[in-house]
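Example S7 (structure tokens).
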């Protein structure tokens, strides 16, 4: 491991020769014929010093050929000794190559890549579960993100398959946390007007209006998942990522801090993905569609309340997982449509939802296992 430094005298009238250079740093560094060391440290380093034009170039190498954190800490100590010391006040110092920062960036990059892969996995699982083949239409509504994806994607026919792969890291932040509506406000108003003219139920009209509400995708789909991830935390990781991928200077203290942050959020994503696989989350929108179809079957076939009461106990045996709020909303919607009492429909709605959920879980298990 090595560090490569160039020293330029600020006073251009002064002589910048090798002997003068060594004398200027004599209180800090012991220069021998082929090795050097800090006065407060016995560790020796090989070095090569040259005068190139008006500059002094000093290349310092660890004697041990290994590339480890121990060597990185030693190189970092030397770097700080030269550039953070008052003795360098006569010089402008350019770091041509910093082996310590190179080591830290290389090691952090694997955590960055792992985090991005797992984030993409979690997002794909969630949006595909919620919207299936409609996921790009339902979630990729921001024009800037769509333009970025269009520029980066080579095969337009695979848009639905690899859109997330074409994201920048900033795209992920905006995609998940930027507040926006599912549909254009003008379209929502027109749909609501039409629903009012048709005297549709209040729940249907509310659902239409909700499509115009500005809300982040994270709040809409991800907030109930088993993960603590915020816009601020993603932005913090973005800043770390930028330093790493652009090979900026990183100290050992920063290395330890960044590594711990990345490992922490990788673990959170692992837990969230495992939780997803175990629970096989189901979209409430899908349930509403299925239950609406079930309602139409009841209406069309004139199935009466006595039949519903008869089958409710049997179906209720497989019912216990849908959230109470979802059951309440769906039950109210169906009851409003076919004018039967809420108690009966609460039972049938919850039972049928569980029945449908079980079948979808089997399908999901085949698709995502």
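Recovered sequence:
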């Amino acid at each position: 491991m090595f560090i490569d430094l160039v020293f330029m005298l600020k006073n251009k009238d002064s002589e910048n020769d090798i002997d003068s250079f060594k004398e200027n740093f004599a209180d800090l560094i012991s220069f021998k014929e082929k090795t050097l060391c800090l006065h407060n440290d016995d560790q020796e380093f090989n070095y090569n010093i040259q005068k190139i034009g008006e500059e002094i170039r000093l290349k310092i190498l660890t004697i041990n050929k290994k590339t480890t954190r121990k060597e990185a800490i030693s190189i970092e100590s030397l770097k700080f000794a030269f550039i953070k010391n008052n003795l360098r006040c006569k010089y402008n110092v350019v770091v041509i190559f910093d082996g310590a920062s190179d080591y830290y960036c290389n090691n952090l990059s694997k955590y960055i890549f792992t985090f991005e892969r797992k984030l993409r996995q979690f997002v794909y699982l969630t949006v595909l579960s919620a919207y299936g083949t409609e996921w790009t239409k339902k979630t990729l509504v921001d024009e800037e993100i769509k333009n970025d994806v269009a520029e980066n994607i080579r095969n337009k026919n695979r848009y639905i398959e690899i859109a997330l792969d074409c994201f920048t890291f900033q795209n992920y932040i905006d995609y998940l946390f930027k507040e926006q509506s599912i549909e254009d406000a003008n379209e929502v108003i027109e749909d609501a007007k039409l629903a009012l003219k048709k005297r549709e139920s209040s729940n249907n009209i509310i659902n239409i209006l909700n499509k115009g509400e500005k809300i982040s995708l994270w709040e809409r789909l991800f907030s109930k998942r088993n993960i603590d991830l915020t816009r601020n935390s993603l932005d913090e990781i973005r800043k770390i990522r930028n330093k790493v991928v652009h090979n900026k200077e990183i100290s050992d203290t920063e290395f330890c801090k960044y590594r711990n942050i990345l490992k922490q959020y990788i673990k959170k994503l692992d837990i969230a993905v495992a939780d997803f696989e175990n629970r096989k989350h189901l979209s409430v929108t899908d349930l509403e569609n299925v239950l609406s179809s079930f309602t139409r079957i009841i209406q069309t076939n004139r199935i009466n309340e006595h039949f519903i009461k008869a089958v409710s106990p049997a179906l209720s045996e497989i019912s216990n997982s849908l959230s109470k709020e979802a059951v309440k909303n769906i039950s109210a919607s169906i009851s409003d449509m076919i004018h039967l009492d809420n108690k009966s429909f609460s039972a049938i709605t919850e039972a049928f939802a569980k029945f449908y959920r079980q079948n979808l879980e089997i399908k999901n298990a085949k698709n995502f296992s």
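Notes on this example. Confidence is low (pLDDT under 50) at residues 281-288, 313-342, 358-363.
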